[in-house]
Amino acid sequence: MSSMDILEEAKAKACCAGLYQSELARMVMGDSMHPGGLALTNQMGRLMGIQPGDWVADLASARGNSAVAVSRVFKCNVVGVEFGREAALEAHAAAVNARLAERSHNVQGDAESPPLRAGRFDSAFCECAMSLFQNKARAVAETVNLLKPGGRFGLSDVTVEPNCLPAEIDGTLGQLLCLTDALTVQGYVDLMEASGLQMLHQVDASIEGIKILDALEAKLGAFTAWQKMTGQQGPDPEMLERGPELLTTLRGLVQEGQLGYWIFVAEKPTS
Questions:
Q1: Is pLDDT of 28 > 70?
Q2: Residue 224, Cβ neighbours under 10 Å: how many?
Q3: Number of separate domains in the chain
Q4: Rounded CA separation 235/72 (Å)
């Protein structure tokens, strides 16, 4: 990779991190920053077989809500890796406030190339972020490198069938909903297996996508009403104007099976 490519990749990651640290992202995705919230995080943790005392990596850990929850529920040690400095600081504060700072740790770094010790982790997970990674194959290979033999990788993300999204989704809303570079269900399976992982579980959680679209539609309606009452401008006027129409389109794609949200769990071979 040339120095220019490296610079452009860094700029793209910084832009993405900035978007996910914004109030607009919080409005759209909520504090958990992914469909299904912490209930789906815990479901994935059970599928991964996380045990008390395990060391677990949370890749693209955002504000640390999942790291704190996994640490508390499974009584394990979690290390979150987040590119955005502000989000990483919030994650640390969340662990301190939850009195879990001894078990829930956070570092600022690139989740596609995490600054963690190879072969140290019993498991790793990545929620609604792989679809945004620029080099997915490298990111999965780096994750496999973190795992002990027999370690497990949990991945939850948006799935999109080819050529089904309207052109308008290529903008901010599409990026917030992790749609712009998502793979098909088989695409994620192929991605994980290509790095030597053995698939254990595939769970269709697409109903959670419907729920987050419904919640977002309600939020947009309330925000539009507030905007009319106060005369203040929203964070993204175009999204507010086109939002209801686009959300109806996306809801239809989920119902047709063109758009979904899945959990994948795979294991690193022991030999």
A1: no
A2: 15
A3: 1
A4: 35
The boundaries of the domain holding residue 181 are 3-267
* Closest C-alpha among 75, 74, 68 to residue 92: 68
DSSP 183: B
Spatial distance between the Cα atoms of 34 and 216, rounded to a whole number of angstroms: 12
DSSP assignment string, 185-247? HHHHHHHHHHTT-EEEEEEE-THHHHHHHHHHHHHHHHHHHHHHHH-PPPS-HHHHHHHHHHH
pLDDT in tens, 52-89: 999 999 999 988 999 999 999 999 999 999 998 888 99
The predicted pLDDT at position 249 comes to 86
Q: Would you say 47 and 78 are in contact if contact means Cβ atoms under 8 Å apart?
A: no
Instruction: Compute the radius of gyration of the chain from its Cα atoms.
Output: 18
Q: How far apart are CA 72 and CA 103, in angstroms?
A: 9
CATH of the domain at 125: 3.40.50.150
CB-CB contact of 95 with 67 (8 Å): yes
Angstrom distance (rounded) from CA 110 to CA 205: 27
The phi, psi pair for 95, rounded to 5°, reads -65, -40
Both tokens of residue 22? 């914004």
The whole-model pTM stands at: 0.80
